[in-house]
Design brief:
By secondary structure, this protein is an alpha/beta fold. It has one domain: Spore Coat Polysaccharide Biosynthesis Protein SpsA, Chain A. About 30% of the residues lie in helices and about 25% in strands. The protein has seven helices and eleven strands. Helix 2 links the parallel strand 2 and strand 3. The protein is globular. It starts with a strand and ends in a 7-residue tail after the last helix.
Length: about 230
């Protein structure tokens, strides 16, 4: 399996001068440093999609393979993911946003699920979160910020198997520049390429968009540093 980390965006909502993947956690590790450490035992390659201040990221983490999204200002995560998938042969792919702080428990739950999967958290969510609805078998039916009656939040860690690779890439190609990659998941669902929703549990993952998310990330890392479920 290959891992793709999407970290090309500016991340303006948090109001920091550096890419969000370089935000520091309680143990002194950056978000990206924690991601790569937890991914390495499960993934043969880690590919980073960069754009905003790419030189800083690449200098700090030279062992990652990088692809550049030259249109990172004009495009969203669907096109960043497409840039990465165009650079590799069809394979099992785990992909995630570069601002996601997760535990190893959450990662293992997703990886143990056969086929295509997205990590979710069942809870009440606000307007800015990516929400979803499911069919009767637990597969994604709708997924976007504008979903009505959403069951929870998509937490930004997902996987697609090699059999679905080309179909998913075609769905990314159909996305508009402003689309999140979740739009491609929804397009796939309409064409029978289904993604299973995997409940990763409470307080196992957070996507850092606002300062309160960063506070939650610190709590998640702190709690897991003091437990046997995950290493610091």
């Amino acid at each position: 399996m290959k891992a793709i980390i999407l970290m090309a965006g500016v991340g303006s909502r948090l109001g920091r001068s550096l890419p969000k993947c370089l935000l520091e956690l309680p143990n002194g590790e950056t978000i990206l440093g924690r991601q790569t450490r937890l991914l390495k035992p499960y993934c043969s390659e880690i590919i980073g999609v960069v754009g905003f201040k790419k030189e800083i990221i690449m200098e700090m983490y030279p062992k990652i393979l990088y692809v550049y999204n030259p249109s990172f200002i004009q495009t969203n995560t669907a096109k960043s993911l497409l840039v990465a998938m165009e650079s590799v042969a069809a394979d099992d792919i785990l992909w995630l946003n570069g601002d996601v702080v997760f535990t190893e428990i959450a990662l293992q739950k997703l990886l143990k699920t056969p086929g295509n999967a997205i990590g979710v958290e069942f809870r009440t969510v606000g307007e800015e979160e990516i929400k979803f609805t499911l069919d009767s078998e637990g597969y994604v039916r709708e997924i976007s910020k504008t979903v009505k009656g959403g069951l929870g939040e998509a937490i930004g860690i997902n996987k697609v198997d090699r059999e679905t690779f080309e179909g998913f890439k075609m769905a990314l190609e159909k996305c508009d520049n402003s689309d999140y990659f979740e739009r491609a998941i929804e397009l796939c669902a309409r064409n029978g390429l289904r993604f299973k929703a995997v409940d990763i549990g409470q307080e196992q993952c957070v996507e850092v968009d606002f300062i309160e998310d960063l506070d939650r990330a610190w709590r998640i890392v702190g709690d897991n540093c003091n437990s046997t479920g995950d290493s610091c």
